[in-house]
Write a structure and sequence with these properties.
Shape: elongated
Strand order of the largest sheet: 1-2-3-4
CATH superfamily of the largest domain: Integrase, DNA-binding domain
CATH architecture of the largest domain: 2-Layer Sandwich
Number of strands: 4
Number of helices: 8
Radius of gyration: 24 Å
CATH topology of the largest domain: Double Stranded RNA Binding Domain
Strand content: 5-15%
Largest sheet: 4 strands, antiparallel
Distance between the termini: 56 Å
Length: 184
């Protein structure tokens, strides 16, 4: 077709059936035009197993076509290195989060072997402090800075937990000590 630009994308009418406009300068880069009016930048390729893959870069309007082209070029560079961009994206999305690690800890014998009062207190620390502050992080993304920030937030009484949850230095220390046990 032609080089995909903002003017070209903005000038496209909404098609009656799904349509793809391919860029003539970068092989595999295109725009999917849908009857619903939602258009997306896409990169299409074949992986090492000769399987056709389509990876959505972004919806049209959220990023400029030049930025989408740069992302497609990054995907192409990964292909030249023998890597599969879509598979890497899926693996990154499926990595274990701190919240998932906490769930595994709660069902482990290390937790279930504790006395019921200790389990109750640990649940309060987890639900009131650890899960809201650190639960969304991937386990491999946990850094010392993130733990220190959580410690300071607990000390100051800032938390996203439900119910009455208090902060303070002692609670912060015991919560981080519990987090260290969960990581081990």
């Amino acid at each position: 077709m032609a080089r995909i630009t903002k003017r070209l994308v903005d000038g496209c009418a909404v098609p009656e059936v799904r349509q793809v406009l391919w860029d003539d300068t970068l092989k595999g880069f295109g725009v999917i035009l849908r009857p619903s009016g939602v258009h997306s930048f896409v990169f299409s390729y074949r992986n090492a197993k000769n399987r056709k893959r389509n990876i959505t870069i972004a919806k049209v309007g959220t990023i400029a076509p030049d930025m989408a082209r740069q992302k497609a070029e990054e995907y192409r560079a990964l292909l030249l290195q023998g890597r599969d961009p879509l598979e890497e994206k899926q693996v990154a999305r499926d990595r274990l989060t701190v919240s998932g690690l906490i769930d595994a800890y709660l069902s482990s014998s290390a937790f279930t072997g504790k006395r019921s009062t200790t389990q109750y207190v640990d649940h309060k620390r987890i639900d009131g402090h650890l899960r809201p502050l650190l639960g969304g992080l991937r386990v491999d993304e946990v850094t010392m800075q993130a733990v220190e920030k959580a410690f300071r937030s607990i000390c100051e009484g800032k938390h996203a937990g439900k119910g009455r949850v208090k902060g303070g230095d002692g609670i912060a220390r015991s919560s981080i000590r519990l987090f260290r046990a969960i990581l081990n």
